[in-house]
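Q: What does the assembly look like in three dimensions?
Context provided by user:
Components: two
Sequences:
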Amino acid sequence: AQSVTQPDIHITVSEGASLELRCNYSYGATPYLFWYVQSPGQGLQLLLKYFSGDTLVQGIKGFEAEFKRSQSSFNLRKPSVHWSDAAEYFCAVEGNKLVFGAGTILRVKS
Amino acid sequence: ETGVTQSPTHLIKTRGQQVTLRCSSQSGHNTVSWYQQALGQGPQFIFQYYREEENGRGNFPPRFSGLQFPNYSSELNVNALELDDSALYLCASSFPTGGEQISYEQYFGPGTRLTVT
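A: Here is the predicted structure of the complete assembly.
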């Protein structure tokens, strides 16, 4: 069965600092991987996706993620965080259904 | 292009009652998925509808049921509500890109917040 682990429940970074959110997945075949962001009271917005090909994928809002098959990881990164990035971030894997991790809440301090 | 819309925004029901939540998919999308997001958790897949047929179901009891209409809008029905059904219910629409794997970009609505008392 598919599963996703986001080891960090909360992360706090200073504005302008770099960010890395961790995601590990479990899936028998080649996964389709996603990162979504959710602001309070809002639905989910897709940041980026990996289907195949280049293992470094670029997304919206300056985010990128790298797929590492050997580590079963798909970590999300951003070189310089803005206060508006404060939100909850979900990693998800899709085999025959979309399975989400528990999320990481990002706090940005000025 | 209209995005995914859901109604109502908020709903309060009593244990044992029944509820219907509605979702209008994004224009051109023929697949709708429903998710339950309990407080502090990630969304959990309830089921998916593709061209008016159920096309996959998560670990939810039969009292969770759904419909998809010819215009691809959808309803989620929950019977015999329990306190644990309190959650944000998210609808997502998508258009299959082909292949055996059901993988497409899913576009989420803002959700319906259901509170069961």
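Follow-up: The first strand of chain A starts at residue 3 and ends at 5.
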